[in-house]
């Protein structure tokens, strides 16, 4: 949800995709970092892919429209074929690919339903198609694949089984609140009217047994959230399965996320395979922030400042990856194998392709030499 407390505007997720003022908040996405270091990058329906960062856009971007359907299996396969061609015919190094399922079905019907299971089966077929497409495009030895998700999903609790959280039972929005972000699940923020912050906090902090209310500066540090300037003065979250409603109960989703990540229902998955990953290796659970330095290593780029650690994921990689030193290591960082990140199962289906950098750079150098030495048509590498 993009919002502006002065204009009172609120924009839903899909309507923010081209709004640079929302996404360009001081943090660089990996595709910008990578292309600044000589990599060729693209975004396919990926969140934030249509924005500019410090005035710079990803080299190629396809932005999902507001009315774009989430669950068309035929289109999913077509999108995979397009991305495979970007790698083999255009030498891209890093591509992000995004699908909005099974999140949509999980919200509408709940996570433990037949419709959700059917969507998981569709995703499973799509991953099978991805594997076939990688082989068909001769990318098996040049592509690493990461499959993960952005969040979990839990079943929402509804009346008459529970007493739902309705903030207007405890405060007057008209008298006390200038702006609010509520009615969107188990999380909310309030901007009180001048001089009313303490009154709002005192009225809400013990209002409902499953509502957790904080002043911004007192929000638990473990969430790594409330220090940003966009966070409003009163921050709240509900216990798992409870939605926070403002003036009336209008929340209709049967499944949702955004709750405390200590709950197992909020956990996600991580799967990876490819030439640089060990086979049949079982890793210990880890925080998602550690995926960023892993992708940077696979792509051969220097990461921006971050809170992750490559040491957490290093054991997943084959031993030969770290046996190269000196000039070999530099060459490997320019030519190492591709990585794909694919979000599925609990959140949305996101594919992050980091192409075999070593191989594609080698192809480009070969093309450049051919161009320099040829007096006829320039040579074009059409595949790997």
UniProtKB/TrEMBL annotation:
SUPFAM superfamilies: Alkaline phosphatase-like. Keywords: Membrane, Transmembrane, Transmembrane helix. It holds the Pfam family Phosphodiest. The keyword Membrane applies. Gene3D superfamilies: 3.30.1360.180, Alkaline Phosphatase, subunit A. The keyword Transmembrane applies. The chain crosses the membrane at residues 339-362. InterPro entries: Alkaline_phosphatase_core_sf, Phosphodiest/P_Trfase. PANTHER family: ECTONUCLEOTIDE PYROPHOSPHATASE/PHOSPHODIESTERASE, ECTONUCLEOTIDE PYROPHOSPHATASE_PHOSPHODIESTERASE FAMILY MEMBER 7-LIKE PRECURSOR. This is Ectonucleotide pyrophosphatase/phosphodiesterase 7. It comes from Capra hircus.
């Amino acid at each position: 949800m993009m919002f502006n407390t002065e204009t009172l505007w609120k924009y839903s997720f899909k309507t923010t995709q081209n709004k640079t003022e929302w996404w360009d908040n001081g943090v660089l996405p990996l595709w910008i970092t990578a292309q600044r270091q000589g990599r060729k990058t693209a975004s396919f329906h990926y969140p934030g892919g249509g924005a500019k960062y410090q005035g710079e856009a990803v080299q190629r971007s396809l932005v999902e429209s507001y009315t774009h359907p989430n669950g068309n299996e035929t289109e999913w396969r077509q999108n995979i074929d397009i991305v495979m061609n970007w790698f083999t015919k255009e030498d891209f190094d890093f591509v992000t690919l995004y699908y909005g399922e099974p999140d949509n079905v999980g919200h509408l019907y709940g996570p433990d339903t037949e419709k959700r299971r059917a969507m998981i089966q569709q995703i499973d077929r799509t991953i099978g198609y991805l594997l076939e497409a990688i082989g068909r495009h001769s990318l098996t030895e040049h592509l690493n694949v990461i499959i993960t998700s952005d969040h979990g999903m839990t079943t929402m609790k509804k009346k008459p089984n529970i007493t739902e959280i309705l903030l207007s039972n405890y405060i007057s929005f008209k008298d006390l609140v200038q702006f609010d972000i509520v009615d969107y699940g188990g999380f909310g923020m309030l901007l009180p009217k001048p001089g009313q912050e303490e009154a709002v906090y005192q009225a809400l902090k013990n209002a409902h047994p499953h509502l957790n209310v904080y002043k911004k500066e007192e929000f638990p540090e473990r969430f790594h959230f409330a220090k940003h300037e966009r966070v409003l003065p009163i921050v709240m979250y509900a216990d798992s399965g409870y939605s926070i409603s403002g003036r009336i109960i209008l929340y209709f989703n049967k499944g949702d996320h955004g709750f405390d990540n200590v709950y197992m229902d909020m956990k996600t998955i991580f799967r990876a395979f490819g030439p640089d990953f060990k086979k049949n290796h079982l890793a210990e659970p880890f925080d998602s922030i550690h995926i960023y330095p892993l992708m940077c290593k696979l792509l051969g780029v220097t990461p921006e400042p971050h809170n992750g650690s490559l040491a957490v994921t290093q054991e997943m990689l084959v031993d030969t990856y770290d046996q190269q030193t000196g000039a070999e290591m530099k060459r490997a960082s320019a030519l190492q194998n591709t990585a794909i990140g694919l979000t599925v199962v609990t959140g949305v289906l996101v594919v992050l392709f980091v192409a075999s950098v070593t191989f594609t750079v080698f192809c480009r150098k070969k093309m450049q030499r051919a161009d320099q030495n040829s007096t006829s048509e320039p040579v074009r590498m059409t595949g790997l």
